[in-house]
Specification:
With about 150 residues, the chain is an all-alpha fold. The chain has a domain of about 100 residues. The chain is about 80% helix and about 0% strand. The longest helix has 29 residues.
Amino acid sequence: MCRPGLRARLADIAQGQLAEISGLHGAALAEAATQPALHMARLRAQLAEIVGAMPALPEERIAQEIALLTTRSDVREELDRLSAHIAAARALLAEGANIGRKLDFLMQEFNREANTLCSKSASLALTATGLALKAVIEQLREQVQNIE
């Protein structure tokens, strides 16, 4: 059982790590906005290589392919869930008692979102942010294991 002073210190550390996760979440939101343009540029470059001397593909077909890629790699859902997890973790910390298992489960959810964010990323910046998120989430998970 945690002493009250230790519990308060652990909660303060966890709040600081949640603030860092929240900041990284904001950075990921900004970086995610560039994903469609990156897909378009990448697809156009690949098409230029493939088509070569062949006539250009119609813009409508290119737009369809870009829409498909963008839909598959859209990270907004993961970022929305991450935001909800941050709010849930803060609410649990405010609750204070008997929250260890709930927070531990929530850390698994944080990890899922960060992993999916990295796997869907089309940019090095978004991948780097996802990896930074994973590192802070792991640090938070270690603190959560000390909270009852």
